Automatic annotation (TrEMBL):
Gene3D superfamilies cross-referenced by the UniProt entry: D-Amino Acid Oxidase, subunit A, domain 2, FAD/NAD(P)-binding domain
Region Disordered, annotated ranges: 394-453
Annotated Low complexity bias: 394-406
Keyword Transmembrane helix attributed: no
A Pfam family hit: DAO
GO MF term (any one): oxidoreductase activity
Transmembrane domains' residue ranges: none
The protein's name: FAD-binding oxidoreductase
Alphabetical keyword list: Oxidoreductase
FAD dependent oxidoreductase domain location: 10-381
């Protein structure tokens, strides 16, 4: 049975934190918004499987600008957004392990311009921050004090709740299977894995709107194809994580030459440790739920889908952290994998599509989607309505073709980047379906040290 669902100004495809933020901003600005989520619960593939870290040290220039523009929102959310603190102190301790000397200097330089600059610390201070470290496993250490834990679920639910409160609609179990533009409006046909929680058990429904926002994460290029837009060359990548219990006090163990006999650690003490990583980004470990979240920082290209952890990556996550600490893990509480989807240059794709009227992108946020969501959603909202970008994101015009565009398939877009000081520009037209508008965030190749741990 095919029935017509909500009509309005905007259809947002994808209910992860990016789509939820865009919907929140558009609905609060008075626009009629319907958000379509393919799964029964929004955010299950990426948002709900993140490392939950807010860091202004990660990402290229565009990502850092979006992150910094998001910090005030998370530090002091609008009234009614949430009743819990979204940010909490954490810090990141990055180690120079053998063979990563050049990476350490690059990391120190790139972290120097953060609001709370990264600082080199000696071994004594590194061991104060994380007593389980092996002194012989690293030569130097870099501390990034401004990194914060973020309550991802509270932030995500705040956006969804605020969207609804402003008159928007959230429909789950609504996978978009067709998109067509007729009579100046978009028509989206949906199907789903089961009954849509809000809309009932119909096998298919049709929703109409003046404009579509493609916030479909790993499926964004597929959604673009349904709309007749060229793909952005997005690549979904698997990121593996495990939750490992730390040996408690009284379970001391000897580990390797020169490390001696070290005790276990109380969960309350572990909770105060910073995230520990190496400057080559081959692993990270972060206190989580009375245990340690470990990851090998893998980024394996995979098709869009419900990804599962690979046994080898699980083993590497444990092995690499054990190699720099006195800890030995004897069991894992949980293991999982999530998706992080990026274009080739690791810069988000934000704004109206240059070739398809009324079709816009909010995709390719990679491992930075949580920390950039407030500013990314705000930027998308002003770009699709002709408003003024936030002051921190005001930019000049793009100047040169996208690096590497020639290597993309013939049907891929040749989007334009901006200088490193630029993020966006205001485009002409105030209608959400304005055909003359086109925008992307600034794009340029990030350094190898800019990637999110």
């Amino acid at each position: 049975m095919n029935r017509t669902g909500e009509t309005g100004e905007f259809l947002i495809v994808g209910g992860g934190i990016a789509g939820a933020s865009a919907g929140w901003h558009l609905a609060r600005a008075g626009h009629r918004v319907t958000l379509l989520e393919a799964e029964r619960t929004p955010g299950v593939h990426s948002t709900g499987r993140s490392s939950a870290l807010f860091s202004e040290y990660f990402g290229n220039t565009a990502v850092r600008a979006l992150t910094r523009a998001s910090r005030d929102f998370y530090a002091a959310p609008p009234p009614g957004f949430t009743d819990v603190a979204l940010l909490a102190p954490r810090g990141v301790l990055a180690l120079e392990t053998p063979g990563t000397e050049a990476g350490f200097e690059e990391a120190r330089e790139s972290g120097a311009d953060a609001p709370e600059p990264a600082v080199e610390v000696d071994a004594v201070r590194a061991l104060e921050l994380c007593p389980a470290l092996r002194p012989d496993a690293f030569r130097r250490a870099l501390y990034k004090p401004g990194a914060r834990d973020i309550d991802v679920d509270a932030a995500h639910q705040g956006f969804l709740r605020g969207l609804r409160a402003a008159g928007g609609t959230v429909v789950t179990g609504a996978r978009v299977v067709a998109l067509a533009r007729r009579g100046g409006r978009w028509h989206a046909t949906t199907a789903g894995p089961g009954p849509a929680r809000r809309e009932g058990p119909e096998a298919a429904r049709e929703f109409t709107a003046e404009a579509v926002v493609n916030a479909a994460g790993a499926w964004a290029d597929q959604v673009a194809g349904l709309a007749g837009a060229r793909p952005a060359g997005l690549v979904p990548r698997r990121r593996t994580a495990v939750l490992a219990a730390v040996p408690p006090p009284g379970n001391g163990q000897a580990h390797g030459p020169g490390t001696g006999h070290r005790p276990g650690y109380a969960a309350a003490d572990v909770a105060r440790w910073p995230m520990v990583t190496d400057v080559a980004d081959t692993f990270y470990a972060k206190p989580e739920s009375g245990a340690l979240l470990l990851s090998p920082a893998d980024a394996t290209p995979v098709p869009p889908g419900d990804v599962r952890p690979d046994d080898l990556d699980v083993a590497l996550a444990v092995e690499r952290f054990e190699a720099v600490t006195t800890l030995k893990f004897h069991g894992l509480r949980a293991r999982w994998a999530g998706l992080r989807t990026s274009p080739p240059d690791d810069t988000p794709v934000i704004g109206p599509d240059p070739g398809v009227p009324g079709f816009s992108w909010l995709a390719g946020l990679g491992g930075y989607g949580i920390q950039t969501a407030p500013a990314a959603g705000a930027l998308l909202a002003v770009l699709v309505t002709g408003g003024e970008p936030p002051p921190a994101l005001t930019a000049l015009a793009p100047r040169t073709p996208l690096p590497g565009a020639a290597e993309l398939p013939p049907h891929c877009p040749t989007q334009t980047p901006v200088e490193s000081s630029e993020i966006c520009r205001k485009r002409p037209g105030s209608s959400p379906a304005a055909e003359s508008t086109t925008a992307r965030t600034g794009r340029w190749p990030p350094s190898s040290r800019s990637r999110r741990t």
